[in-house]
Amino acid sequence: MAIEHTLSILKPDATRRNLTGKINALFEAAGLRIVAQKRIQLSEAEAGAFYAVHKERPFYGSLVSSMLSAPVVVQVLAGENAVAKHREVMGATDPKKAEPHTVRAQFAESIEANSVHGSDSPENAATEIAFFFAGTEILP
Ligand code: CMP
Question: pTM higher than 0.70, yes or no?
Answer without folding.
Answer: yes
